[in-house]
Amino acid sequence: MVFELSKEYVERLKEAIDNKDADFIIESMEGVNPADISTLLYELNQEESKFVIDSLDTEIGAEIINDLDEDDRSKFLKNFNSVEIAGFVNYLDSDDAADILNELPVKAREEVLAGIENEEKAAHILDLLRYDEDCAGGLMAKELIKANVNWTIIQCIEEIRRQAENVEKMYSVYVVDNREKLLGRVSLKRIILSEDNTLIADIYDDDLVSVETYLDEREVASVMQKYDLEAVPVVNVQGKLVGRITIDDVVDVMRELADEERQIMSGISEDVEEDDTIWVLSRARLPWLIIGMVGGLMGAEFISIFEADIALIPAMAFFIPLITATGGNVGIQSSSIVLQSLASRYILEDSYTKRLAKVFLVAVLNGIVLAILVFGANMLFGKEFTLAVVVSIALFSVVLLASFMGTITPLVLDKFGINPALASGPFITTANDLLGLAVYFSVAHLLYNL
Amino acid sequence: MVFELSKEYVERLKEAIDNKDADFIIESMEGVNPADISTLLYELNQEESKFVIDSLDTEIGAEIINDLDEDDRSKFLKNFNSVEIAGFVNYLDSDDAADILNELPVKAREEVLAGIENEEKAAHILDLLRYDEDCAGGLMAKELIKANVNWTIIQCIEEIRRQAENVEKMYSVYVVDNREKLLGRVSLKRIILSEDNTLIADIYDDDLVSVETYLDEREVASVMQKYDLEAVPVVNVQGKLVGRITIDDVVDVMRELADEERQIMSGISEDVEEDDTIWVLSRARLPWLIIGMVGGLMGAEFISIFEADIALIPAMAFFIPLITATGGNVGIQSSSIVLQSLASRYILEDSYTKRLAKVFLVAVLNGIVLAILVFGANMLFGKEFTLAVVVSIALFSVVLLASFMGTITPLVLDKFGINPALASGPFITTANDLLGLAVYFSVAHLLYNL
């Protein structure tokens, strides 16, 4: 039942677009899920995509556009005028509409808002535009089913009928008092199984999880995951029901956050994908490469202090990569364990001291094992005794220092509201390279009595 | 409405447990969401946790245990005998029950199965145990509402009433023919709004996305995300409806996959968390540290070939960290961009050659910028001209090689069914360190005519 996208179909489609054959598009896309057509558009250029959208019903076009990636969508929408965009927005839920409007230039936004036929929807969108995109208010939709606590089931069903068109995903009816304060919910299952004249007051479930408008999207995702929710009502500071977040939007948020973390951990500074232009891809990668380069040059300057030592004992240079690589690896391991904890955020955190004590012990254990192994290997390969001692002492110290740095950096970044994943990227590697070199050459200088 | 976990409460609770004061536990946890009590258990030891579970209703206890992390749960369940575990399993959905049974030793599993009161449930669980945990069959639950296409709405409501206890999350009724083949679905909204004598055949929606039992959990997650589903029916190869996957389970899968990727990218070889023991944490980190160490020792051996060169021109050693760090950074960037593509998996992939050509161009661009910057810096800091040329040529080559390695490695790993995130971890850094050193010293040896 899932649409199969084949190379042959794409070729046939491009041909049809070249011939301005809208009929082929309409016929072959009959009954195909708009999400599949969105995927298909990635095989076409902007002009071809526009022809496809123009050929189809505005309602289908709206869904296709809504399913595009945010970046691609805002580029693609430049091909449409405000009247056309307003036409699409008419068919979208208020949250999706607000997302699209947020991507438009201010002038276009005003024009689109003016072009929305349904006044209630326009008001809804205007309300949603007030919220930051990264919080519950920015994720919620205004479309939901609300019942007064004094209603009967029959009144409730009447409301469901009235709103059936507007609220596509319906899981439960939210129960409010006369002042719109959220009291609880009644599941659709309950409504089906209750008598028509049952009072909502008698059957609603007041044991309900809700979130406030300002809650960060990460927290919203945590709450919905923890309580296994398919939808969560959003309330304002007075406890009034103002919207509803559905899990599909939160799933998208989770995916975006995972992508963002991966990019930050790998030292990529923009949201890029493999199919972006060469220029965008290079630009996203250069900043961290340059920071790494500056670190490397500082390392070079630092090693140059020991030029005379190296001239005397060139074997000192052999172990530079071992020291810097170990520092980097240990640092990334440490920070990613902290990252994991921060992502799950248990409520009662251990104190910093307790965490650092543990990190210290793990580092001592790892450091000892590595130092002994390297010492053994160096003796086996006939390296000089003093050098072997220097390398093992330096290695042990580097493991300790890098663990400390790797643990403390994400915690500090998080405290300052910066994404702690930054600590697992090239940042920690560069810092630990320098730290490792300092330790290694200092120990060597000392033990060799240079 | 969310339970607030405070240090004071935990202390008071521990006191109550010490005094075997079950009443305090029952009273203070009245109406608290089991997911919150699960979180609370992380503040207690095994014995204390068992006392809490024993004090509460078996049904609540079952939900609390079900909400624990998989690792913690299998440890915790060792405190209960088979009869007690069967008691909990009686209250769980078949998928959760199967997960718990999968964690038990074979003998205990048989005993628990024998202790399940509801025969239909025992049969469901036995059926689910056949499936691999990482596929749709392993994720699905057997609890769902199924209606024959020839039924009327009233028969359908009767079935909902009959199953209301068993199926907690109800979104729609799946429609099957006389041979149990899945035909489509009817949403609860539609049922509420339809007349009692309406035929299911007249109103069901045949435009339904379903997955087959063997589909990988990643694909299940992709499908549910793409089509914004809160539940997806699972069919066997004959198209018969055999189960249903709800989004809450898929959200957990997504979180686990993200955690797994983060750990692999950071060179951590077991699923660990900050609160694991020092021994477990060390053991998870050592394998990759040792691989990095072996790489470092190989690097040392390699550099030692050039001992005479370094004795002559010690400044050669200065730039070792710059070369290795850049190789590492470029490699991780490249592989994580591929990782991102693999995670989103567009259907029609560009060919390998086209991808590599693009990677090559990005690398050339980045390589040129870095080489020029480093050359400028070296001239500015009064480094020798030949050395500056050597460093820049080596840097440029390393960027090219590391990009190639970083792109090709995850693609090859993925082809062989290995998690491609492995390519973004210490693996790529170690390989690129060696590659970088080889290029650097070869270029130096050549240009200096040594």
Please explain how this structure is put together.
The structure is a homodimer of 450-residue chains. The first copy, chain A, is mainly α. Chain A folds into three domains: 7-130, MgtE N-terminal fold, CATH 1.25.60; 146-254, CBS-domain (Roll), CATH 3.10.580; 278-447, Orthogonal Bundle (Tetracycline Repressor, domain 2), CATH 1.10.357.20. Chain A has helices at residues 7-18, 22-28, 34-41, 46-55, 58-67, 70-76, 82-89, 94-103, 106-115, 119-128, 136-139, 153-163, 188-193, 200-203, 217-226, 247-265, 278-304, 307-312, 320-344, 352-380, 385-415, 426-447; strands at 146-148, 172-176, 182-187, 211-212, 231-235, 241-246. A three-stranded mixed β-sheet of chain A has the order 1-2-3. In chain A, helix 15 (217-226) packs across helix 16, helix 19 (320-344) packs across helix 22 and helix 21 (385-415) packs antiparallel against helix 22. The longest helix of chain A has 31 residues, at 385-415. The radius of gyration of chain A is 30 Å and the shape is elongated. Chain A starts with 6 loop residues before the first helix and ends with a helix. At the A-B interface, helix 12, helix 13, helix 15, helix 16 and helix 17 of A face helix 12, helix 13, helix 15, helix 16 and helix 17 of B.
